[in-house]
Amino acid sequence: MAASDTSRVARIRRHLRLRKKVSGTADRPRLAVFRSGQHIYAQVIDDGIGRTLAQASDMEVEMRAVVGTKTDRARQVGALVARRAKEAGLETVVFDRGGFAYAGRVQALADAAREEGLVF
To answer: DSSP per residue over the chain, as a string?
Structure first.
């Protein structure tokens, strides 16, 4: 197994361990974050019905105009997903960091979502 495979497997194991405790409901859906090498994605998910209620990523047309670092793009994605969640009538969520460390881009996304008014 290559080093990248072991780190990927470790992240998946951390995420599964986290998902035992964190689940989105209709009252408090789950804000799930996925971070690839270049991009970042966020979804607000109601696990009870298995539906994505709001989503945002830095690959969207309106996000391509954002110039700056990957952390800057993560802040913009956090703000965008929070606005879309509020439009869908959601105020509170539970945060699912996806097995990633709560630092860097994941933290920037979470902070921006909080600044836009999401509570978690």
So the answer is: --HHHHHHHHHHHHHHHHHTT----SSS-EEEEEE-SS-EEEEEEETTTTEEEEEEETTSGGGTT--S-HHHHHHHHHHHHHHHHHHTT--B-EEE-TTS-SSTHHHHHHHHHHHTT-B-
